[in-house]
Here is the input.
Amino acid sequence: RKEVEQDPGPFNVPEGATVAFNCTYSNSASQSFFWYRQDCRKEPKLLMSVYSSGNEDGRFTAQLNRASQYISLLIRDSKLSDSATYLCVVNSAAGNQFYFGTGTSLTVIP
Amino acid sequence: ETGVTQSPTHLIKTRGQQVTLRCSSQSGHNTVSWYQQALGQGPQFIFQYYREEENGRGNFPPRFSGLQFPNYSSELNVNALELDDSALYLCASSRDRGNEQFFGPGTRLTVL
Here is the structure.
């Protein structure tokens, strides 16, 4: 079983829509969780860390559900510039290995 | 504050050769991780260096090796290159182990 699993999509949504991505992880002892975005042929860029209490940054909300072992990312009022691949990242229990999902592709359509 | 830098940007090698990739970590960061990203896949963790010691390793063979220097810059060495080693190699630095990682632009390696 993979450490981290994501639905690869693609998700094609109109501007202004709300879209949500989920990511499941296999190790219940994992401690740190992150969302990154990656544009085509570029490096991943940190979008936000995911905290147990959930956190929000503008139009983006991240949630962690430890009981069901998944993290989620909600994007409200989608913009054309949100088109990218979104990667979830889970740290190993020991904190010394990072596992990336395969990424979810999002295209926001005018 | 200088971000993470990597060199070279692109590299073409032939099967069986050896390659060294370089990474300069962001100022104030003592931890460097290396990743391999094949087309259409998420980055795969190769290993992590913390204060000049290997701190964790993914499922990669021993021909993938690394170093971290006192200034926390790092090298990734790959021996006996195979065609499947063709990928984008990403370096990421963080303030400490387990913290948010910041990526460099990557080195695109092509093995012919």
Summary: Chain A touches chain B through 25 residues (CB under 8 Å). Chain A has a mean pLDDT of 93. The radius of gyration of chain A is 13 Å. The CA atoms of residues 35 and 88 of chain A lie 5 Å apart.
